[in-house]
Fold this protein.
Amino acid sequence: VQVEESGGGLVLPGDSLRLSCTVSGLDSSAIGWFRQPPGQEREAVSCISGTGGTPWYRESVKGRFTVSRGIAKNTAVLQMNNLKPDDTAVYYCGADPSNRCTVFFTPRPYEYGYWGRGTQVTVSS
C-alpha cells in the first residue's frame, strides 16, 4: 500500500491551496487529512469515508476547507480556501481500510494504518 500527497506550498493569507491524496494497493478506504504544526502534535483536519457519508471537519477549518473523493479510485482532494497563518503545518494523508470515518467522531491517527510522507503548507505574508 502506498499513500502519496501533493499540492502544498507557500501562500499568502487568504489564498487557496488544493491538496491531493492517492492511495494505491487498497480497493477502498477512508482517507483522513491530518496536520502537524511546528512543535506540536499531529491533529486531525478532515476525513471522508470510502463508503459514503458526511465528512468530518476540524472546527477551525469548517467553512474554509472541503474534502471530496477524487474521480480515480481511492483518491481524495482537500480544497483549502481563505488560508490563515495558523494553518501552517505539514499535512499528511492517511488511509484506513476499515472505513471508520464518520461525522460524529474525531478521527485518530492510530486508525490510519497507512501514511504519506507529508506536504508542507506555509501561510505567511
